[in-house]
Amino acid sequence: MVYYAIKRVLLLIPILIAVSIIVFLLLDLAPGNIIDMMQIENLTQDEYQELLRQYNLDKPVIVRYGLYMFNLLQGDLGKSDYTGLDVWQLYTSRFPNTLLLAVSSLIFGSVVGIPLGIFAAKRAGTLADNAVTFITLVGMSIPGFWLALLLMLQFSLKWQWLPAGGTEGFRSLIMPTICSGFVLMAGTTRQTRSSMLEQLNADYLRTARAKGVPEKAVIRKHALGNAWIPILTTIGGALSFSIGGSAIMEAVFTWRGVGSLAVDAVINRDFTMTMGCTIMTTTMFVLIQLMVDLLYALADPRIKSAYARPKIKRRSAA
User: Fold this and answer.
1) What is the signed CA dihedral for 263, 264, 270, 276, rounded to 10 degrees?
2) What is the pLDDT of residues 159-214, one digit of tens each?
């Protein structure tokens, strides 16, 4: 498994290069630049050219990209073009809020979604199964920002039970968690139901029941144990996107996380901050996917054996 993990970490290098090139070119093609966002009045042409030189905007895009990557190789994410603050410090100051929202959404979606999926699979074709399917379809179809606005109107504006936004205390976390976790809950429920349906009619479960194994043990230990792989894939993918920053949820609830930081950087044409957020988000995404792949080995010993480093066969002496 160590050999496999090292290979996956090394694959991060070409991924970061490809993502950084694409984002850098897209930012360069976007209209306007950081100087236009400053809205400096009575700016002369000489002063404008001086600002261009200060931000290296007078150089070709390939040169600016090379300068950025040279600094990145030295571990320097640079300073924000818009605020002048250190990109690493800004990112790390916002990341705990994003991590808190992602983990709370993951817990909410998993704790509700997995039992609900098992419940629906055991009652496939019944009214209860159809009701669960309807709920999951609604959860996967409803726009997150629309659900957020509904919750804000009801719980903040009308009843005044919860704050409409901000990152102050536990109460401000409730509505963002529900909105972010509702989609995860829907996807987890559907995937759990589908995976469990494949297992419930398997021969080994009928054998376990014939041996007198209790039904709860059949479901939890045997069926769910073999259905974990696709469920982990769904949960891991959702966690990766959440860690990257749910920009819409963070913008609606004014949650000071990585997603809102990246959106502000793009709006302000802040090249350095946008690239820093992209590099860090891509790194976190790949590392989380690596963790999910390693969890596969815990769920299925066959996968663990596939992760093992291939042994080199020695030739026997003639």
Assistant:
1) -60
2) 888 888 777 778 888 888 888 888 888 888 988 888 888 777 777 777 777 878 78
Q: Do residues 88 and 220 lie in contact, with contact meaning Cβ atoms separated by under 8 Å?
A: no
Both structure tokens of 166: 């901000």
**Residue closest to 80 by CA, chosen among 284, 264, 285:** 264
DSSP string, the chain: -HHHHHHHHHTHHHHHHHHHHHHHHHHHHSS--HHHHH--TT--HHHHHHHHHHTTTTS-HHHHHHHHHHHHHTT---B-TTT--BHHHHHHHHHHHHHHHHHHHHHHHHHHHHHHHHHHHHTTTSHHHHHHHHHHHHHHHS-HHHHHHHHIIIIIIIS--S-SS-S-TTHHHHHHHHHHHHHHHHHHHHHHHHHHHHHHT-HHHHHHHHTT--HHHIIIIIIHHHHHHHHHHHHHHHHHHHHH--HHHHHHTT--SHHHHHHHHHHTT-HHHHHHHHHHHHHHHHHHHHHHHHHHHHH-HHHHHHHSPPPPPPPPP-
Long-range contacts formed by 167-176: CB under 8 A, 24+ apart: 167/97, 167/255, 167/256, 172/253, 173/100, 173/101, 173/104, 175/148, 175/151, 175/253, 176/101, 176/105, 176/148, 176/249, 176/250, 176/253, 176/255
Q: How many CA atoms lie within 13 A of 193 on its CB side?
A: 25
Answer whether 90's CB lies under 8 Å from 257's CB: no
> 251, 264 in Cβ contact below 8 A?
no
The tens digit of pLDDT for each residue in 264-318 reads 888 888 888 988 888 888 888 888 877 877 777 666 666 666 555 555 555 544 4
Q: For residues 69 and 1, what is the distance between their CA atoms, to the nearest angstrom?
A: 31
